[in-house]
Specification:
The protein is 31% helix and 30% strand. The protein is built from six helices and ten strands; from the N terminus they run βββαββαβαααβαβββ. Strand 9 and strand 10 form a beta hairpin. The longest helix is centred in the C-terminal third of the chain and has 16 residues. Bound molecules: adenosine-5'-triphosphate and magnesium ion. The site of magnesium ion has 2 residues, from helix 1.
Length: 226
């Protein structure tokens, strides 16, 4: 099944009277089970593509379908609940809430019923190797550990689809590789479909396919060997 389908997707940002076209007609399709990396120079539109597909940012032309449904046709509440249940998002700078513990950060994202919540949070923290740190605050953790927690937060509602914008961009090499190993495991073992932006060509080898962006367009779409 196609989890993501875009057709001539366009995004224009306006600065006063100046209109800048950041996505210039992007047509891509992602099937379930794929782990796709997006690479390209700074400013080529990678983050904008991820945000428009995931509904974090509106688009200005063309169309996006998620799980076979047109994104623009979702009513606001539908879209919010779709985002909460079927989509997880991982950011470069983790975006954890500093005065909440690891456990509470994941709890905040959970849309589960009260009875299943505690076990689900601890199990998800286990998946990312952070169960022993449930009562820690983000400031007490290394960058790699904070990113693991933010991945747990993205996973708590058992989404089918994970988006990640430069998940290793703020980490040193070793921690970056560990996070990529975790993503590969989520793809292979937990059957998560992943769309990730990265600056680092080496990280594309963890995925199944790489899209190269340049100046608002996808200029190359290649299968990756792993
Ligand atoms: N909120 C915004 N308002 C106006 N212009 C924006 C906005 N966000 C992004 N842009 C512009 O859109 C273009 C693409 O930005 P985007 O963040 O998608 O690039 P990117 O490929 O993710 O770059 P990087 O590798 O540096 O993260 C840039 O020229 C940027 O200035
Ligand atoms: Mg970016």
């Amino acid at each position: 099944m196609e989890y993501i389908k875009t057709n001539e997707l366009r995004k224009v940002y306006t600065h006063g009277k100046l209109a800048v076209e950041v996505l210039k007609g992007i047509t891509i399709a992602l099937r379930d089970g794929e782990f796709v990396s997006i690479v390209g120079p700074s400013g080529s539109g990678k983050t904008t593509l991820l945000y428009t597909i995931s509904g974090l940012e509106p688009y200005t032309g063309g169309s996006v379908e998620l799980f076979g449904r047109e994104l623009s046709a979702f009513r606001d509440r539908d879209q919010a609940s779709l985002r909460a249940k079927d989509i997880g998002f991982v950011f470069q700078f983790y975006n954890l809430i500093p005065n909440l513990t690891v456990y509470e950060n994941v709890l905040l994202a959970s849309v589960l019923g009260i009875n299943e919540t505690k076990a689900a949070i601890l199990k998800t923290l286990e998946t990312v190797g952070m169960a022993d740190y449930a009562s820690y605050y983000p400031g007490e953790l290394s960058g790699g550990m904070q990113q693991r927690v933010s991945i747990a937060r993205a996973l708590i509602n058992k989404p089918r689809l994970l988006f990640a914008d430069e998940p290793t961009g703020n980490l040193d090499y070793k921690n970056g590789i560990e996070i990529m190993d975790l993503f590969r495991r989520l793809n292979v073992e937990e059957k998560k479909t992943i769309l990730m932006v990265t600056h680092n060509e080496e990280m594309t080898s963890y995925g199944t396919r790489t899209l190269h962006m340049l100046d608002g367009k996808v200029i190359k779409d290649e299968r990756t060997l792993r």
